[in-house]
């Protein structure tokens, strides 16, 4: 049900503000999960996060890049848009917020995050890019 009653629909009904609401909700959850899963080793922390994301059925998180500047993760089977026909928009604001929240625990400041690929935009997977620097 959540899958079909999510960002795209709500955004259409409520306007742009809904995107912010979803992103903030995701960020709060990401921070809470991050504090719960925290490990001093970044690799181990990311492994815990991947497991958490799978267990809570948010999707299948695949870290693609991590360096001083950027964290890039793919999200397959994304809870928001998996199975959705392409609507030519990137809509996974909740997931962007979640990854930002997870990252905030890691770097101890609020990062900039955005969706760089989205299944709903016909790109085959969702991808979130976080600026660390
Ligand atoms: Zn998406």
UniProtKB/TrEMBL annotation:
Bilayer-crossing regions: none
Span of domain 4-vinyl reductase 4VR: 70-132
InterPro entries assigned: NO_sig/Golgi_transp_ligand-bd, V4R
PANTHER family: ARSR FAMILY TRANSCRIPTIONAL REGULATOR, DNA-DIRECTED RNA POLYMERASE SUBUNIT I
Name recorded for this polypeptide: 4-vinyl reductase 4VR domain-containing protein
């Amino acid at each position: 049900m959540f899958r079909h009653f999510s960002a795209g629909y709500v955004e259409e009904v409520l306007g742009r503000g809904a995107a912010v609401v979803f992103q903030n909700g995701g960020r709060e959850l990401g921070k809470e999960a991050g504090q719960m899963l925290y490990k001093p080793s970044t690799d181990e922390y990311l492994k815990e996060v991947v497991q958490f994301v799978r267990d809570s059925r948010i999707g299948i998180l695949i870290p693609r890049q991590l360096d001083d500047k950027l964290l890039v993760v793919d999200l397959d089977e994304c809870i928001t848009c998996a199975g959705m026909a392409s609507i030519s928009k990137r809509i996974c604001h909740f997931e962007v917020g979640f990854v930002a929240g997870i990252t905030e625990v890691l770097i101890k400041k609020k990062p900039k995050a955005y969706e760089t690929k989205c299944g709903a935009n016909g790109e085959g997977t969702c991808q979130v890019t976080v600026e660390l620097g």
